[in-house]
Amino acid sequence: MGRVRQTYIKRLAKDLVDSEKEFSEDFDENKQILNDTQEFNSKRLRNRVAGYVTTLKGQTEQTPPSQ
Known about the structure:
By secondary structure, the chain is mainly α. It has helices at residues 7-18, 27-37, 43-62. The chain has a single domain (7-58), classed as Diphtheria Toxin Repressor, domain 2 (Orthogonal Bundle), CATH 1.10.60.20. It contains 3 helices and no strands. Helix 1 (7-18) crosses helix 3 (43-62) and helix 2 (27-37) packs across helix 3. The mean pLDDT is 86.
């Protein structure tokens, strides 16, 4: 089973995905986008947010549109 992510990581990632930035399903690309745009206090926090952004993008691409 996976680890539970903290609420502030989920909130920050969802806000970033809803913003105008173009994220992808690739962790390394998302990490680089966050590194260029956001000021994170630690590398660990940036990587955790990038990982959750990757998960969110994967979920949205797999979900069929509702009718």
